[in-house]
Design goal:
mainly alpha, Helicase, Ruva Protein, domain 3, Methane Monooxygenase Hydroxylase, Chain G, domain 1, two-stranded antiparallel ribbon, 9 helices, about 5% strand, globular
Length: about 300
């Protein structure tokens, strides 16, 4: 519907595009088509190609590239290993969404992004899926510790989201050893701008048990990510070092590197157009859906 008024290249497969944009509403799809047409115009193309759609999709899902942000070699290497940690865990864990792309090109407020895309739209999430998300969130911090021999603030957003997700598993979805119980009633207060207040309806002793279960889930995810990374240490190094060379890898390329295969050489056609490769990251939101890594507005961006 949205593409009727624009000239499309013969290589545009709308069914493939549709499968790669699960969860996008009609307005989002219209915006994607407009962005693709604008990208084609900037490249002086008379038709919109699949590359234009991929570029537009990345911009909508992850934010625009920040070409003006120059990273030091040390920051770039740290970002590459951080994102390689996310990507490897996402690629090897059963029950996780397929890895879409990983990049160390700064986008939005993130220095790097790893993204998964589900095969189909999801409306509910099982425990195996959520445990995989927790492990993937921990993959960046684990990789920093094992390969960079330090910890950075770049994992702050990952840790925050993992803790939030684990707490929801315990308090809202009954997915812990405490059983199928709900803790903490929510009440909307419509004043000073519609605030959501969380009221505790449980004892101090129960609060301690909840904290223990949240910690157990997050720590278990950390250990799981560490195990997968240590089992695939050579693959992680290949992913990180290739990211330093290419800046962007798609899911298929990551799998080839994990399998020890050599990637095809990039064509020598001058400066690489980021449209030739796309990027993305996984983060469960409150739904939980996926969200691009980033910090609050005004903070210095860090590796996702």
């Amino acid at each position: 519907v949205h593409t009727k008024k624009i000239p499309l290249s013969e290589n545009v497969d709308l069914s493939v595009l549709g499968r790669g944009t699960p969860g996008l509403a009609g307005a989002d799809l219209a915006n994607l088509v407009n962005e693709a047409a604008l990208n084609a115009a900037r490249q002086n193309r008379k038709v919109v190609t699949m590359v234009d759609f991929e570029t537009a999709k990345d911009k909508i899902l992850m934010g625009a590239e920040r070409k003006s942000l120059i990273l030091s070699d040390a920051e770039k290497k740290n970002t590459a290993y951080h994102e390689a940690g996310h990507a490897l865990v996402a690629a090897v864990l059963p029950g996780a969404d397929p890895l879409h792309k990983v990049t160390i090109i700064p986008r939005g407020m993130a220095l790097g992004v790893t993204m998964q895309l589900p095969i189909d739209d999801k409306h509910s999430y099982n425990r195996q899926y959520l445990l995989a998300q927790l492990a993937i969130l921990m993959g960046g911090r684990v990789a920093e510790e094992l390969y960079m021999d330090h910890m950075t603030t770049g994992a702050g957003n990952d840790i925050e989201r993992a803790t939030e997700l684990a707490r929801k598993m315990v308090c809202e979805w009954g997915m812990s050893e405490l059983g199928p119980l709900s803790y903490g009633k929510k009440e909307e207060q419509i004043f000073l701008g519609r605030e959501i207040a969380q009221h505790r309806d449980y004892s101090e002793a129960t609060a301690v048990l909840i904290d223990e279960q949240v910690k157990k889930l997050v720590q278990g995810a950390y250990e799981r990510a560490k195990q997968k990374i240590q089992e695939n240490s050579g693959a992680l190094v290949r992913i990180a070092e290739t990211l330093l060379q290419r800046e962007v890898l798609d899911g298929n390329e990551v799998m080839q590197l994990i399998q020890g295969k050599t990637l095809a050489e990039l064509p020598l056609t001058g400066p690489k157009d980021s449209a030739d490769h796309t990027q993305q990251v996984l983060r469960p939101e409150s739904s939980p859906g996926r969200r691009v890594h980033g910090l609050a507005e005004g903070e210095r961006p860090q590796p996702a």
